[in-house]
Amino acid sequence: MSNTPSTMLELGTQAPEFRLFDTVNNQLVSLEDFDNAKGLLVVFICNHCPFVQHILDEFVITARDLQQKGIGVVAISSNDVENYPDDSPVKMAALAREKQFSFPYLYDGTQEVAKAYRAACTPDFFLFDENDKLVYRGQFDDSRPGNDEAVSGQDIREAADLLFDEEVKEEQKPSMGCNIKWKSGNEPDYFG
User: Fold this and answer.
1) Where's the Thioredoxin domain (predicted)?
2) Is 185 part of any domain?
3) Which of 38, 106, 114, 142 could form a disulfide with 119 if both were Cys (CB 3.0 to 4.6 A apart)?
């Protein structure tokens, strides 16, 4: 289990485009599908990461709560499935069904979307406002596998509440998790 932090993409960054297949229904999902949302939370996760497993149940609840407020949610896995078969699209779909994801779980097989977002770890959270400008990037909350902090989603929930106040909290803590499992030779310049 590695401790890789978020790259902390610059606030105000325009949301990078994506057009990926949802592993559950095989439908293409793109950034434009969320044009009418009051914001969009993009999270990079995977099936096998202990950091993701630690927060997953609370993340599913938090995602539903955000969606009820009109905020879109999308999860993306960019891991190398040849070396990490638990993160394959078939197993992603199985996990999404088991945990009853209310949001698309997309597979980024080329890893280009992860690079566009400068995603570094799983989980890695990016919250954009209704104009697709980055207002939050960082951790779900202070909980980590092995510490005594309760899993609450507090940081994401607070950031989402600020969307409606049009205020950006400047102090944000990076997420921490397993590094994205890059395909050999496909590692971005910010990796390592």
Assistant:
1) 9-165
2) no
3) 114
